[in-house]
Design brief:
- With about 130 residues, the chain is mainly β.
- About 0% of the residues lie in helices and about 50% in strands.
- It contains no helices and 11 strands.
- The chain has strands spanning about 5, 10-15, 20-25, 30-40, 45-50, 60, 70-75, 80-85, 90-100, 120, 125-130.
- The strands form 2 sheets. Strands 2, 4, 5, 6, 9, 10 and 11 form a 7-stranded mixed beta sheet that branches. Strands 1-3-8-7 form a 4-stranded antiparallel beta sheet, with no helix packed on it.
- The N and C termini lie far apart (about 40 Å).
- About 30% of the residues are buried.
Length: about 130
């Protein structure tokens, strides 16, 4: 059974940076899609970025392009979300998610939808103050 655990959230001033981590356990043979999502108070969950655990193209939400980047440590089954130039509107609970992919699956920007994913972490809170 796949499980995800996020960490690295905290409070930061506008313009600052944070790095979130998502560690997976229970991944089996084959590839998986992964995604970072966020949900602010009284708002719908928003896709931040998505891609494959194995690498390749990643897709970013419009609100974070140029400021957030993804990196991977496949040996540790860990993803990192590097966030810079943070804004108060980035304040939210951040979640990572994953779903196994069929062999040879071509990932598209559709993965920015939370309906794409099956397994979710518990979230980590990011608060950006002005």
């Amino acid at each position: 059974q796949v499980q995800l655990s996020e960490s690295g959230g905290g409070s930061v001033q506008a313009g600052g940076s944070l790095r979130l981590s998502c560690t997976a356990s229970g991944l089996t043979f084959g590839d998986y899609a992964m995604g970072w999502f966020r949900q602010a108070a009284e708002k719908e969950r928003e896709g931040v970025l998505c891609g494959k655990w194995s690498g390749g193209s990643s897709y970013y939400g419009d609100s974070v392009k140029g400021r957030f980047t993804i990196s991977r440590d496949n040996a540790k089954n860990r993803l990192y979300l590097q966030m810079k130039s943070l804004k108060p509107e980035d304040t939210a609970m951040y979640y990572c998610a994953t779903v196994p992919l069929p062999r040879g699956w071509w990932l598209t920007a559709d993965c920015l939808s939370d309906r794409y994913f099956e397994v979710w972490g518990q979230g980590t809170l990011v608060t950006v103050s002005s």
